[in-house]
Amino acid sequence: MIVIDGQRLDFRDIVSVADGEQVALSPEALARMEESRRSAEATALRRPVYGRSTGVGANRTVSLAEVDGGDSHGLKLLRSHAVDAGKPLERRTVRAMLVVRLSQLAAGASGINPAIAEALAELINADVVPEIREFGGIGTADLQALAGTALTMLGEREPLGGGEVPRLVDRWATADALPFISSSALTIARAVLVHQELSRLLDNAASVAAMSFVAMSGNAEALSPAVAAAADTPAVAQAANAFHGLVQGSGTPARIQDPYCLRTLPQIFGSQWEELAALGSLLRRLVTAGNENPMVHGSPAEGSNDVAHHGLFQMTNLARRIDALQVAVGAACATHLRRIDLLCDPNYTGMHPFLAEDATGQSGVMMLEYVAAAAAGKIRANAQPTSLQTVVLSLGSEEDASFASLASAQLESTAEALATITAVELVCAARAMRLQKRRADEFSSPKLRAMLEAGFTLPSEMGDRDLRGDVERALQLVRAAN
Length: 482
What we know:
Layout: E1 2-4, H1 11-18, E2 23-25, H2 27-44, H3 64-67, H4 72-81, E3 85-88, H5 91-106, H6 114-125, E4 133-135, H7 143-153, H8 174-181, H9 185-215, H10 225-229, H11 234-247, H12 260-263, H13 265-286, E5 295-297, E6 306-308, H14 316-343, H15 346-349, H16 366-382, H17 404-435, H18 446-455, H19 468-479
Parallel strand pairs: 1-2
Antiparallel strand pairs: 3-4, 5-6
Helix pairs in contact: 1-5, 1-9, 4-7, 4-8, 5-6, 5-9, 9-13, 9-14, 9-17, 9-18, 11-13, 13-14, 14-16, 14-17, 16-17, 17-19
């Protein structure tokens, strides 16, 4: 059971809920939301509040009291904003969205009725997953996804996979409609899940790269403490030290100076780790940020209650952070591919071309280069800056968009492609070291030994054959927690 308090939410807790764990709201979170609700109500009595007493978007100047004077506008808002299109998202992605939204509501800046948050927790615990489709958000709040969630809670929309859904909310007041959907919870949740995947993947990719380094008798001077001390960023220094520990004592170097794909491993991985850490820092703030528009602040008990109409829902920084990580991963592709290429070269491994069984013209791992290159093409395409996109909507009242939602989706695609490249390198590096008759117990680094032992679980047959199974098994290994 993950307790949601609106103050702190670990990434591993989000992953746990995505994978089926249940949740509970803390008493402090419920009290905070109740105070926020009373504050919003008090403010609305003395001045217009966007979405509560007015329409939304270009309708922000329309007074709801003049239109229908009742709570039915909230339900109309949810129904009109729930449209999306494309393929349904995976259930774990949607569950991650739900827990992120619950955490944000628990922060107590939305003015929503706490009963809605309790119903959302009930939705999670009942494992009823709204059907959310891929096209809808543009990085200015995931309105469609959360409106669709609200309709699922009302029993008006079938959940993912169909079937009956319990009606968790009997009535949705106008005052609770916009506060529920005014969030980028889906975009943030997707970024959190892929951040966690990339954390494991890049760590394993470093061990695989170290295997390649050893298989090609790299020169560890490029990874020495002296080099680390002179590094231009702490992340590059950290990477140099990490690689030095991985390959220390692995043998006599074959060259005075290696190709860049081996010699610049600290820069290659340090830059990716640096951008991954920066994205993580931002996401840790966003999963508990009460950024709803308008933002409720102050206390009715102290007479300081008010709201602030703002634009924090515009996920500009998130889009830029993801772009920076995409560029770092994309820039590393050339060296990933080059290591795979050199592992196929007898001048670097001492084996037959393409790590073939013999010199009779067998192709060995030749075609794996093509697989890795295709995946690199996907990564490089994704690395084109999403944050440069924009659009003008709602009769010109919303004249920009971050497209962080697209950035998160593309980062998922990048992680998938990077896993493929890393798996191909693992197949090649393990094959090279097997042909060289290397043993895992030769190496002092536990991480290198573990990765080599994992690589040696791949099929040992060296004759030409279908290598799809090898790549699929290697994918499992590079995605696993170490």
